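Journal club prep — side note

Before the paper discussion, L.F. wants everyone to see what a predicted structure for a comparable chain looks like in token form. Sequence:
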Amino acid sequence: MSGSVTPGRTVDSERQGERGVGVTKGLDGAVIAVAGAGGPTGRAVLARLAGAGAHVYGADADAGRLHESVEAAPGTHGAVVDLLDPAATRRWADDVEREHGRVDGLVHLVGGWRGGKRFADNSLEDWTLLHDLLVRTVQHTSLAFHEALARSPRGRFVLVSAAAAGQPTQGNAGYAAAKAAAETWTLALADAFAESDAAATILVVKALVNDAMRQARPNAKFAGFTDVADLAVEIAGLWSTPAIDLNGKRLCLNIP
């Protein structure tokens, strides 16, 4: 774990006699882990969560990208973790929980894309890569964090998915299938959260866009794309929404 740690105060939900229907208290003092924290999306999410008062712990396999994200979001912490290694992932989860005695959220941002225009462009080599990035990392992080999240009065597991999972195109078969598998795994986690105050939620985008992409393609429209800053706002808002309204939900952003 990097950076200094300031002990956070425990914030409990105000119960209303039913699990998942507590009055939420947002992100103030929440302990949030972010998997795949490197890159523009990770930078935006880390900054937004930290700015809302959360203790944020990012992980990425790329030390350089992770460093840039942490530097851009003062007060956040970073750990270089191979999320394809289940033991390493569990050690990261244990480290995060040890710092504050709890974990209130895991945001899964690990991504990747391979594909083409025709069905024949799909390859099993691409599928192997996509399965690791988009499915295995979800499995490893959810298994490592789910018990801590279930104990939290405001636990949230957030998967960022793609519209392709429900609307695959011929050249996108591997990517769409991997995203669909990750969504199914997340819905199973939601079922595990049914008797707790935690929630597993899927945020669906057509694609993401950031300032560097716009600068590289100034004439591009990026129609229906979700800006990474807007995605970060949506993610942060999940801690201000009762779990009963989020658990097992597939929420579509900017998709007609």
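L.F.'s comment for the group: The CA atoms of residues 209 and 222 lie 7 Å apart. Keep this in mind when we get to the figures.
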